[in-house]
Amino acid sequence: MSAADILTGSTAGLQLLGGIFSMSAADAQAGAMRDQLGLLKAESEADIARYAAEAKDFKARQAQAFMKSGVTLEGSPLEILDETTRISTENIAAMRARTATQLRDVKNKAAAIRAGGRAALIQGVAGAAGTLAKGGDKLGWWTPSVGPEGPVAKKGNPGGSSYLSSGLSVTGFAKP
Length: 176
Description:
The protein is built from 2 helices and 2 strands; from the N terminus they run ααββ. By secondary structure, it is mainly α.
């Protein structure tokens, strides 16, 4: 086995390993993003619960202030309390919508990272195959040797006659 054979095989192996490591790193990063989703959701729900409690407390203080001043809770004061409830409900809905958008964005980023990892793996496999095919062709790995007694083993084909040294092309059809 020559140095060129070893270099070609090593290069192909490194390309394959690079793809595997890239996919592994992408999976790890996507996993961290999935963990971030849970934290984001929990923080958002806690913020919403705090805001709802504050809004409820504010409405109660409003009602108490009206009643202390001798105003009955009908007409304009009741409309003010209803407006406070409406605004807090809208704000909570907006907070939930913002959280849903953030969750969707993180999920999409995680999916894109996973897809990039898979693409890197495929690129590594394709690069390794290309290196082996091109390097093997230059080194004569794919050229059959035919001696006076038929196909014979060549460098890179230590086991003797094989598919590639049988007189067939790589496609399986007889060579002209």
